[in-house]
């Protein structure tokens, strides 16, 4: 009989639906195009000062990352380094000729944009590559720059979260940092209490909606979410009222 090591007996593996914290680096043709490693991003010339670096929170098997990477997460061992190669259909897809379009130059000028070949623009939330500008028309390609390409990911699951309360806590920390973790009762009611000190701006509203949607969709034990918000009169208003 073969021997089974203690490490093999106790290896912690990811199941579909688990929340995990994930480190990864994506490469195409050997070149890094995306990574959670800040220093590597700088070295590779893909650093984005507006991006968050470090392990990201992902619900395994729920298509929150590329299809091929998502499939590789289920069954992966926690703390083990892995590499996976993804064909185009499980990465950024194949090129679609219908996503190459001609748009009036005037539409760009209305937005204060002076397009030029080679520019990468954000068109209503979609990344667009400017191919040419001619005769008052701009030819843009809305296909992903890695469409039709196979890519490789190296990744490591650094933490696995399975308990419903811990999932909610991780979700609120990710989306609503600084707000106390929500409570969860036996009936499946999650209660989030937002203190007066939290700025109730547009970013907060978007994050709150995302939290509610993801809590209901990704945590099966949650049947209802209630959000209680506290508001306090500004200090200057208090002084004026005296």
What is the topology?
Blueprint: H1 6-10, E1 19-28, E2 31-35, H2 38-44, E3 56-59, H3 67-73, E4 81-86, E5 100-104, H4 105-110, E6 120-123, E7 126-134, E8 137-141, E9 151-161, H5 164-175, E10 183-184, E11 189-194, H6 202-218, E12 224-229, H7 235-241
Parallel strand pairs: 11-12
Antiparallel strand pairs: 1-2, 1-3, 1-9, 4-9, 5-8, 6-7, 7-8, 10-11
Helix pairs in contact: 5-6
Poorly predicted tracts of residues: none
Q: Within the CATH hierarchy, at the fold level, what is the topology of the largest domain?
A: Chitinase A, domain 3
CATH architecture of the largest domain: Roll
Query: What does the overall shape look like?
Result: globular
The average pLDDT is 92
How much strand?
A: 25-35%
Structural class: alpha+beta
Helix content: 25-40%
Total number of strands: 12
Give the N-to-C terminal Cα separation. Answer: 84 Å
Overall number of structural domains: 3
Q: Mind telling me the C-alpha Rg?
A: 23 Å
Order of helices and strands: HEEHEHEEHEEEEHEEHEH
Q: How many helical stretches?
A: 7
């Amino acid at each position: 009989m073969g021997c089974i090591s203690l490490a093999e007996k106790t290896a912690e593996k990811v199941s579909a639906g688990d929340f995990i914290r994930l480190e990864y680096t994506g490469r195409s043709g050997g070149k890094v195009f995306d990574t959670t490693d800040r220093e590597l991003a700088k070295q590779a010339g893909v650093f984005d000062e507006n991006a968050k670096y470090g392990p990201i929170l992902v619900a395994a098997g729920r298509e929150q990352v590329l299809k091929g990477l998502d499939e590789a997460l289920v069954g992966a061992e926690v703390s083990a380094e892995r590499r996976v190669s993804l064909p185009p259909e499980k990465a950024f897809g194949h090129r679609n000729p219908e996503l190459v379009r001609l748009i009036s130059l005037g539409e760009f000028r209305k937005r204060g944009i002076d397009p030029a070949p080679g520019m990468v623009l954000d068109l209503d939330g979609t990344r667009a590559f400017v191919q040419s500008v001619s005769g008052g028309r701009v030819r843009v390609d809305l296909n992903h720059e890695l469409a039709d390409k196979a890519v490789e990911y190296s990744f490591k699951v650094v933490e696995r979260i399975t308990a419903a309360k811990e999932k909610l806590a991780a979700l609120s920390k990710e989306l609503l940092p600084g707000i106390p973790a929500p409570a969860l009762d036996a009936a499946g009611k999650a209660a989030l209490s937002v203190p007066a000190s939290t700025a109730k701006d547009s970013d907060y509203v978007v994050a709150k909606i995302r939290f509610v949607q993801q809590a209901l969709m990704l945590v099966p034990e949650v049947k209802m979410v209630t959000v209680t918000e506290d508001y306090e009169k500004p200090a200057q208003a208090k002084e004026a009222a005296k």
